[in-house]
Amino acid sequence: xxxxxxxxxxxxxxxxxxxxxxTPAPGPGEVRVKLACSGVNPSDVKARAGLRSRELPFxxxxxxxxxxxxxxQVGPGVSRTQIGHRVWVWNAAWGRACGTAAQYVVIxxxxxxxxxxxxxxxxxxxLGIPALTAFHAVNSNAGVAGKSVxxxxxxxxxxxxAVQFAKLAKARLVIATVSNDAKAALARAxxxxxxxxxxxxDIGQRCVDLTEGRGxxxxxxxxLAANVQVDLAAVSQDGEITVYGSGAADIGxxxxxxxxxxxxxxxxxVYRLSPADRTRAVEGVSALLDRxxxxxxxxxxxxxxxxxxxxxxxxxxxxxxxVVIDIPS
Length: 329
Known about the structure:
Layout: E1 2-5, H1 12-15, E2 17-20, E3 30-40, H2 42-49, E4 66-74, E5 86-89, E6 104-108, E7 112-114, H3 121-124, H4 127-139, E8 148-151, H5 157-168, E9 173-178, H6 181-190, E10 194-197, H7 203-210, E11 216-221, H8 224-234, E12 235-243, H9 255-260, E13 264-267, H10 275-290, E14 298-303, H11 307-316, E15 322-326
Parallel strand pairs: 8-9, 8-11, 9-10, 11-12, 12-13, 14-15
Antiparallel strand pairs: 1-2, 3-4, 3-6, 3-15, 4-5, 5-7
Helix pairs in contact: 2-11, 4-5, 4-10, 7-8
């Protein structure tokens, strides 16, 4: 099969190769998916660049955890009725050498989720990390019904879904931070009642003003290292700061300011959700897909041969939304 892979970390154009590799076969409890699209996420880019570790866990890595396609083979213990199902996949590259930047991927049966006919393969490739992260951030800890919510980066891959999930979960007020008018329009179209420009606005004070002096009940944060002080100014007494990302590995959290407000911090990474939380997120996203209630924002779509360019696009932050790779048939 044709696949993109790297055997050392470094710049995308220096380490990514597109070539023929051995086609995998499913083992017990596994399915093989003939992929149509592969999603590129910041975590994929950081792993390839060596920002988390310079040591590879496998001699050769086919990157990307997200993708969509059709089940074409099943292993022992899996019903053959699954063959031909359109599916989206999650955690394909987590803890294994072969992800979705290839014509085929083999994964455990439960990591291939049935996809409704109204959802395209490119949309399905956006779901694994961005949509599941957003769903858990919004719906964990009794959810946001009747609450005010601030979504950091409301036009980004995760933030765009988080705005929608918060609105669908009956949040009282959804506020999104953005950096320009185009991103503000995207966040408002997704359901944000208010957008704030983090380059110009006093986010903390505006959130206090918009909530009649109380502050927002929940903040969904993509970079706590950059925004912890802003978040503490914006959050309410007994509020929550739900964190799924940070620009720095170690963060100094202001203890006294946090304690005075009885702030609850929740940190999580979507790869390591508990089985119960994972099931809840997958079922929740699937239900919304079935009802055609989600907007998907594909910012760029490139062929597998241009995977290095796709990585650079994600790395630069220029993409407003998801970056998807088309896999040749």
